[in-house]
TrEMBL record:
CC annotations in GO: mitochondrial intermembrane space
Keyword Metal-binding applies: no
Disulphide-bridged cysteine pairs: C7-C38, C17-C28, C39-C50
Keyword field: Disulfide bond, Mitochondrion
A matching Pfam family: CMC4
Compartments, as annotated in UniProt: Mitochondrion
Keyword Nucleus: no
Protein name stated in the entry: Cx9C motif-containing protein 4
Organism of derivation: Sinocyclocheilus rhinocerous
Family the entry assigns: Belongs to the CMC4 family.
Gene3D superfamilies hit by this protein: CytochromE C oxidase copper chaperone
InterPro entries xref list: CMC4 (IPR027179), Cys_alpha_HP_mot_SF (IPR009069)
PANTHER family: CX9C MOTIF-CONTAINING PROTEIN 4
Length: 66
């Protein structure tokens, strides 16, 4: 039996938050941050939920200006 994805709970929370907030990402920043942290913790574990998420996060960081 396949093992449960360690970040599935956070991925579902993102989907639920985005749907509830008409897909306005800024209103879901807390759950998105929780997903980032989960993906960092489970980086070596082939998480399907994290595949692409960490790549997206890294590419977004380079475009952010403070």
């Amino acid at each position: 039996m396949p093992r449960k994805d360690p970040c599935q709970k956070q991925a579902c929370a993102i989907q639920k938050c985005l749907q509830a907030n008409k897909y306005i990402e800024s209103l879901c920043e807390d759950v998105i941050q929780a997903m980032r942290k989960c993906c960092e913790v489970h980086a070596g574990e082939n998480s399907v939920c994290c595949s692409g998420f960490t790549k997206e996060h890294k590419s977004t960081d380079t475009n952010t200006t403070l």
